[in-house]
């Protein structure tokens, strides 16, 4: 596998391509998926406190890194702060618990998963204060070496602009839903302006885009799978992608992205599919 990397504003390298693990909770499946992923050359694993699989990932890596001749420093681990964990002390404690579950001394990347705090209404101004406190705790974790890079997920431009008023470290990564039906140009522009890397989740639109006729047409011409075309569309914009699957055969399919390119016309055709469709969550109403 071509291990394309991006240099983050923190100074650390992050693979552009990795393994998403949302909704993969069973320990035996986690083990098999990570085993095959490492064999294929995957070097980024994305998890979160709310996925409830960090302990299974930690157990799997303890066995599988030596099996594949790898060290902890050879892989990139991302985890995320859950909405219920927002706040100064809760955020710090939550990260320490993630480290314990993952059986590692540091995280390569730690993200605030959502701009709101659990149990607060979306329009409650307490959300802004909670994420401010959480971010300052993330900065503390970074300065202490427990987290190499810090960032946010599901933030809007409003949330990001607000951060500039209190952050002493600009987010290294913004992870958001991003695919041809949701081309978030305003977020990509903000990231480019502030040296923040945009990483996409739900690159396939929860599989809805796999049946789009334009995606299928491009895939047929290139003799590729629609999923590969959609992932490649992100990579050619220097957007990171972290597709998830529990099917071992699809791990190889998802990773076969480096021996073909989309033409400029292909890229434009796919980008013109934008219809502001969110298949996941909409953070725009969070105060």
Salient structural properties:
single chain, 287 residues, alpha/beta, two-stranded antiparallel sheet, 10 helices
Q: What would you note in describing this structure?
A:
The protein has an eight-stranded parallel β-sheet. A two-stranded antiparallel ribbon has the order 1-2. β4, α2 and β5 (76-81) form a beta-alpha-beta unit. The protein is globular, with a radius of gyration of 18 Å. It is built from ten helices and ten strands. With 287 residues, the protein is of the alpha/beta class. Helices cover 39% and strands 15% of the residues. It starts with a strand and ends in a 16-residue tail after the last helix. The model has no long low-confidence stretch (mean pLDDT 97).
Task: Summarize this structure briefly.
The protein has helices at 27-40, 54-67, 88-102, 126-143, 157-163, 185-193, 213-222, 226-235, 248-255, 264-271; strands at 5-7, 13-15, 19-20, 44-46, 76-81, 107-112, 147-153, 173-177, 197-201, 240-241.
Topology:
Layout: E1 5-7, E2 13-15, E3 19-20, H1 27-40, E4 44-46, H2 54-67, E5 76-81, H3 88-102, E6 107-112, H4 126-143, E7 147-153, H5 157-163, E8 173-177, H6 185-193, E9 197-201, H7 213-222, H8 226-235, E10 240-241, H9 248-255, H10 264-271
Parallel strand pairs: 3-4, 4-5, 5-6, 6-7, 7-8, 8-9, 9-10
Antiparallel strand pairs: 1-2
- What's the total number of strands? 10
The helicity comes to: 25-40%
Task: Please compute the radius of gyration using only Cα atoms.
Answer: 18 Å
Order of helices and strands: EEEHEHEHEHEHEHEHHEHH
Poorly predicted tracts of residues: none
Question: Kindly, what is the distance between the CA atoms of the first and last residues, rounded to a whole number of angstroms?
Answer: 42 Å
Mean pLDDT: 97
- In which order are the strands of the major sheet placed? 3-4-5-6-7-8-9-10
User: What is the beta-strand fraction?
Assistant: 5-15%
Q: What kind of sheet is the major sheet?
A: 8 strands, parallel
Q: Tell me, briefly, the overall form.
A: globular
């Amino acid at each position: 596998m071509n291990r394309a990397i991006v240099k983050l504003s923190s100074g650390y390298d992050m693979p552009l391509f990795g393994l998403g693990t949302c909704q993969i909770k069973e320990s035996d499946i986690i083990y098999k998926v990570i085993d095959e992923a490492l064999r294929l050359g995957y070097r980024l694993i994305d998890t979160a406190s709310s996925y409830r699989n960090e302990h299974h990932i930690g157990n799997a890596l303890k066995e599988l890194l030596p099996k594949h001749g790898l060290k902890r420093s050879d892989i990139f681990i991302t985890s995320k702060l859950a909405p219920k964990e927002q706040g100064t002390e809760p955020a710090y404690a939550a990260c320490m618990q993630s480290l314990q579950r993952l059986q590692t001394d540091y995280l390569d990347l730690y993200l605030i998963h959502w701009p709101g705090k659990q149990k607060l209404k979306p329009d409650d101004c307490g959300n802004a204060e909670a994420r401010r406190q959480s971010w300052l705790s993330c900065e503390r974790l970074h300065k202490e070496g427990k987290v190499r890079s810090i960032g946010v997920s599901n933030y809007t431009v409003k949330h990001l602009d607000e951060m500039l008023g209190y952050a002493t470290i600009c987010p290294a990564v913004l992870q958001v839903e991003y695919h041809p039906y949701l081309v978030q140009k305003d977020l990509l522009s903000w990231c480019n302006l502030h040296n923040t890397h945009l990483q996409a989740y739900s690159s396939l639109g929860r599989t809805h885009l796999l049946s789009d006729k334009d995606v299928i047409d491009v895939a047929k011409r290139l003799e590729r799978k629609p999923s590969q075309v959609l992932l490649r569309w992100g990579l050619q914009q220097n957007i990171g992608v972290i597709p998830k699957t529990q099917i071992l055969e699809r791990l190889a399919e998802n990773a076969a992205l480096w021996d073909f390119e989309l033409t400029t016309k292909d890229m434009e055709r796919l980008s013109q599919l934008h219809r502001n469709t969110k298949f996941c969550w909409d953070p725009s109403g969070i105060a």
